[in-house]
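Practice problem: predict the structure.
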Amino acid sequence: MGIIRQYIAPLIAVLVFFTALVAVSARIFLPADMAAPAPIEEAIPQKQAAVVNPIFLGLNYSAFDVR
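Answer:
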């Protein structure tokens, strides 16, 4: 158990750190138009269907009739 705590856990932590460092540093090598943040555009609202709760319709989907 001591080997895991002394050698393997720190190695995993260092590997995770370097993996994150490589992923973040990869932006340097991207073309200029891809390295910029994504443009923000306002979403055009689509028609939304009305959602009706079945309880308001008087429907009972329970397996047991509780009356």
